[in-house]
Amino acid sequence: MDNTFTTLTNVAAWIGALTGTASLIIQVLEYRLSKSKITCELDNIFDSFWVNGAELYKDRPEKTLTSEEGLAKLADIQVLSINISNTSNSPITVNSVYCKNSPIVRDLDVRVAKYLPKPFNAPLALEYPKRKNFPRRLEANDSFKSSLIAITDPSDLQERKITVEIVTPSKTYKTKVMIKNADEILRHKTIGEFQRTLTEKIHDEDKNSTTN
Are residues 48 and 107 in the same domain? Predict the structure, then answer.
């Protein structure tokens, strides 16, 4: 009988240990799922590129340029179309998003396009989403698209590596992205891809008009 009692006691102890371990694992998983986590990547429909400001505004008289356009004319302009996602099960506030070591310009309209030959004579433009206002609350497992336009010193590098920083109340997330020159993007983008981007831009504008 003593052996039976000992066996039952050991079984109960093992069950208790397994239950405790399982409970701990569940708590750890719940914590990891609820812990805020932000990801940022270049959007796969909108365009991301850089363009030389002097080239972009070469046909514009100086007196017609805004203060930001005048500053951008002396620099290279970086246009990022980013997709920011909250991959956790808890909401989080994004306080700001910026490019490391590159000043953000808020009111710059960067229009880069190529024209179809006759008889069409129609422009095919690079497009980017509307810039979102910050701070911005991001619900659990939700995402949003935004443009990020910054200026930097002129460079001969055709492909640029840029560090994007997303500031939240608990942490600053950093990610590196690569962008190419606008001419390179225009040269290789198909008409079908231009159409797809334009459709996404119309959808983005409709979504923002509904939200705002």
Answer: yes
Residue among 43, 181, 79, 188 at smallest CA distance from 124: 188
User: Residue 101: left (phi > 0), alpha (psi -120 to 50), or beta?
Assistant: left
3-state secondary structure of 51: strand
- Asked if 13 and 110 sit in the same domain, the reply is no
Residue 5 has pLDDT above 60, yes or no: no
pLDDT, residue 28, reads 47
Give the pLDDT of residue 76. 96
Is residue 80 domain-shared with residue 142, that is, in the same domain? Answer: yes
Q: Same structural domain for residues 70 and 28? A: no
> What domain range includes position 186?
37-211
What is the model's pLDDT at position 106? 82
Q: CB 1: neighbour CB atoms within 10 A?
A: 5
